[in-house]
Structures are given as C-alpha cells and as structure tokens.
Amino acid sequence: MLDFRNVTTQITAFSDRRVSSLPQLRAALSEAGRRLRNASPVWEAKRERIQVSKTSWLVADWLEPPDAVYPLPARPMPHTVLAADGSQLVTDRHDPAALYLLNVGLVAIRYAASER
Predict the structure, then answer these.
(1) Phi and psi, residue 64, nearest 5°
(2) What distance lies between CA 104 and its chain's CA centroid?
C-alpha cells in the first residue's frame, strides 16, 4: 500500500533540491546563450568545418544560424487539445492468465477565445 506521508516527504525533498539548483540552472542557461551569440557571426564557417571534417561518427549539422528566432504560428480560437495514453502488459503464452490492457487515460482540454 502506498504510504502518502513518505511520498509527501519525498516530494518536499525533491522540491527543495530543485529550488536549490535554480541558480546553477540560470547560470548555465546564461552561458549557453552567450556561447550561441558568440558563435552566430561565424556559424557558416563552423558548419563548413564540420562538413569537411570526415569524422567516423555522426556530427550534428547546423541548418540555420544559432540565434535564429521564428514567431510562433497563430493558434486558432477556440480549439481543443486531445491526448490518450495506455499501458499494457505483454502476454506470455505459457502464463495461465491472459493479461491485456492495464490502464487507459484520456484527456480533452478546450481553449476558447477570451471574453473581453
């Protein structure tokens, strides 16, 4: 049986660890942004260098400048988002009990234009 007091303690500890790691995360994101901005002026040269390197392993290719920003497409209003999830047990032909679908979850979230 699930001990909810234990789960609550674990969730609190997890939350505390996440909060304490926020400064490191912010610093890492800031550094990543700085490196992208510094690489942007020379990205074509770096891309060419990667393409001619003839490595024996796969290397990611830059398709566009690292600082490229594209606007998000407009979402139609109103709209509905649907999702489904299921988990199943794979049956074993030697098992005396046939096991099939165990859990199914469905959700529909409706978004509507704001009433102003």
Answers:
(1) -155, 165
(2) 22
Angle at 66 between CA 69 and CA 18, to 5 degrees: 85
The pairing of beta strand 79-88 with beta strand 101-111: antiparallel
The three-state (H, E, C) secondary structure of 25-50, written as one string: HHHHHHHHHHHHHHHHHHHHHHHHHH
Give residue for tokens 């690292």: 66
Over residues 30-75, the pLDDT tens digits come to: 998 888 888 878 888 888 888 888 888 888 877 888 777 888 888 7
Q: C-alpha dihedral over 98, 103, 104, 109, to 10 degrees?
A: 180
User: Of 83, 78, 84, whose CA–CA distance to 104 is shortest?
Assistant: 84
Please report where in the chains the tokens 């609550």 appear, as a residue: 8
Q: What is the pTM of this model?
A: 0.42
Structure token pair of residue 108: 């529909």
**How far is it, in rounded angstroms, from Cα 86 to Cα 104?**
4
